[in-house]
Design brief:
Chain lengths: ~240, ~200, ~250
């Protein structure tokens, strides 16, 4: 890659205050134009990595670069958050407005859009994701799959240049999972996706990295192959989504 | 809006304490055991709200939300606020044991009063409901600061001007509490209306 | 933020019976709070400092809390000397410093800080759970103790729930200011916290009923009253009486 990556991590180390163990150990990482998958065991620091990038956690040492410039204080992180969107693992942690339209319009309002324009952007984002009709629904009462897609919409409405997506397939039914894969493949933005789901990553990203003992290692891209599997009516002709 | 220990006279302390005991007994009578957990949720929420700082111009204020407590809990706001204020004393040493009765009364009585007058309008759609919630938030803080002022003035007439200044400095908080209470009530009536069933005597 | 920094430790006060400590604290507070004279207040302050020494608490933490608690006191110092009236101590231009006001502010400052120390040593050295059971032993209504224990239990749940949601606002570039959007956002964050906690409380209630909960908690460790507790309690009562008598000398 010749041009400057959107953001970079340089020698980032991180540990939680009450522990001795380094969650991130001199991690170097850069996001260019591609979609990247990130896997690793529970507690291996994947989510922490995202939080460090977004400035939600302060690293012990190392720096975060945005367009090649270090991001250090609150206002510089605020600038960066306009361009980098984070989607939390648990959609319930992301949605806090009474109705869907208010939640999706929240980001654009913060970016300085007028209420009218923010409403228009929100409606268009929902329509693009095939979520028209949810606008005036109560976010708290959406199904798990709907919540996941709406939380994606709340970030996409801010038109970010890159996305960080934390375990998007957790608890999704097969239909919503397939829908998410389609949506992610249609996105032009580079993104980093944390997942345990190799099949999902194989369908959505170009490179896969692993996080192990606080270090990032490159994984060979998995080859598509078949496994025997079982489910009811498996003997009849069918296809999988 | 805690009065520190060591400020008030014996009669004010005794009076506030007695009124809080009465309010708490009535409040507890109206809450059955299996609803106590829901009341506890609101007490903790009230405590957490006091840690949330909102910007006002160059400074910041913290939320009180006693009006909201009254609107949701009715009489049960007495024991709920008593528990929350006791915990604030234990955690941050704001207030104290002897002055706890007065402090609870100053927060709970205005909240209860607002709740009695405003609840019938709270669920009205549009402007009426929103206005009722705003008034609840605004007046609970106004009346609470007047109660504090009154306690000070009863203790020593020399406190009267200090008490006046205290009420005046709470004016921005009243305006903000009005807005925040209005938005919270609007949220709750849409998302979880059964939360307001708490105040009904069983 | 939500810690009980004084409840950890191994002094006598950390082991003493919570109910007896609460009564001692209340009695000492009452007698100092109601004094109108400097002598008993100084005596109270002396006792409180003595107790503080024996409690072996983190002195930096005590000092930090003391500063925070003196906010209301600072407000009194700013207003009382100028507004109290009566005899004039000195005057600068239109401002007259009232002797009565300064005296009252000084008296309140000493009282408040002595009582603050009583509280830290005698109440804050127990955890809230211990205090709850202590209050129950003092024949407080069990419902109220139950309410307090649950309020305490949910504090951590609710505050972490709130902070998780607040994070969601931060990553979407929320920049608080003095405007309607800010107040609405805080209201929504708080209301959503309330809704989630509310639904959680319903589930906890069901889970407890399923496990045979009948409205009473059984403490894991019975609180006993030892001989040492009795001696200490008697000592505290004598101190209270002596301070009370000083008022009349």
């Amino acid at each position: 890659m010749s041009e400057t990556p959107l953001f970079e991590l340089k020698h980032i180390s991180f540990k939680y205050p009450d522990s001795e163990h380094l969650v991130l150990d001199r991690v170097d990482f850069a996001l260019g134009e591609r979609k990247i998958g990130l896997i690793g065991a529970n507690g291996s620091g994947k989510t922490t990595l995202f939080h460090v990038i977004m400035g939600l956690q302060t690293p012990l040492s190392g720096k975060v670069l945005f367009h090649g410039r270090p991001v250090r204080n609150k206002s510089e992180f605020r600038e960066m958050r306009k361009d980098v969107g984070l989607i939390f693992q648990n959609a319930d942690d992301q949605l806090f407005s009474p109705t869907v339209i208010e939640d999706v319009a929240f980001g654009p309002l913060n970016l300085g859009e007028s209420p009218d324009d923010a409403g228009k952007i929100a409606r268009k984002t929902l329509a693009d994701l095939g979520l028209s009709g949810l606008e005036s629904r109560i976010t708290h009462r959406l199904s798990g799959g709907e919540k996941k897609l709406v939380s994606l919409a709340t970030i996409l409405a801010m038109n970010p240049k890159a996305l960080l997506i934390d375990e998007p397939t957790n608890d999704l039914d097969p239909a919503t999972r397939a829908r998410l894969i389609t949506i992610l493949n249609e996105l032009n933005q580079p993104c980093v996706i944390i997942s345990h789901d190799w099949d999902f990553l194989a369908e959505t990203v170009q490179d896969i990295f692993g996080l192990d003992h606080g270090r990032i290692i490159r994984c060979e891209k998995a080859d598509l192959h078949n496994h025997p599997h079982a489910h009811p009516f498996g003997g009849q002709p069918h296809h999988h989504v | 809006m805690h009065i520190s220990e060591g400020v008030l006279s014996a009669s004010v302390l005794a009076g506030g304490g007695a009124l809080t005991v009465i309010g708490t007994i009535i409040g507890l009578k109206r809450v059955s055991y299996d609803r106590i957990m829901s009341v506890a949720i609101l007490s903790s929420a009230f405590f957490v709200a006091s840690l949330v700082h909102l910007p006002v111009g160059p400074g910041s204020v913290h939320l009180l939300l006693n009006g909201l407590m009254g609107l949701i809990l009715g009489w049960a706001c007495f024991p709920a606020l008593l528990a929350a204020l006791f915990l604030q004393a234990v955690f941050f040493q704001f207030g104290g044991i002897i002055v706890l009765g007065v402090n609870t009364f100053n927060m709970a009585a205005p909240a209860l009063l607002c709740s009695c007058f405003l609840r019938p309008w709270l669920f009205a759609p549009g402007f009426k409901g929103a206005a009722a919630a705003y008034v609840g938030g605004f007046f609970s803080v106004l009346l609470s600061s007047l109660c504090v002022a009154f306690c000070l003035a009863l203790t020593d007439e020399g406190f009267i001007k200090t008490a006046g200044i205290l009420v005046a400095t709470h004016f921005p908080i009243m305006i903000i509490e009005g807005f925040v209470t209005m938005f919270i009530v609007s949220f709750l009536t849409r998302v979880q209306p059964d939360i307001f069933q708490m105040a009904k005597p069983r | 933020m939500l810690e009980e920094p004084f409840s950890r430790g191994d002094s006598f006060f950390h082991r003493a019976n919570p109910g007896m400590k609460i009564i001692s604290a209340a009695a000492l507070t009452l007698v100092v709070a109601l004094s109108r004279d400097f002598v008993p207040v100084f005596a109270g302050l002396f006792v409180s400092l003595l107790l503080l020494v024996f409690a072996r608490l983190d002195s930096r933490m005590v000092f930090r809390r003391m500063l925070a608690v003196n906010g209301f006191i600072a407000f009194l110092w700013l207003t009382l000397p100028l507004t109290y009236g009566g005899d004039v101590l000195m005057s600068v231009g239109p401002l007259a410093l009232s002797g009565g006001g300064v005296r009252l502010a000084a008296l309140i400052t000493l009282k408040s800080n002595a009582i603050f120390l009583f509280f830290i040593v005698l109440v804050a050295t127990s955890t809230v759970a211990e205090l709850g059971h202590g209050l129950e032993a003092l024949q407080m209504p069990p419902k109220l103790c139950f309410l307090m224990l649950f309020t305490y239990r949910y504090l951590f749940v609710i505050s972490s729930e709130y902070h998780r949601l607040a994070r969601a606002a931060v990553i979407r570039c929320f920049n608080p200011g003095t405007n309607r959007h800010t107040y609405r956002t805080y209201a929504h964050l708080f209301a959503m916290t309330l809704v989630k906690s509310w639904n959680r409380s319903q589930r906890v209630r069901d889970a407890m009923l399923l496990r045979g909960f009948n409205g009473r908690f059984y403490p894991m460790r019975e609180q006993t009253i030892t001989g040492l507790d009795r001696v200490f309690f008697a000592g505290m009562l004598v101190t209270v009486i002596i301070i009370a008598l000083m008022e009349f000398i």
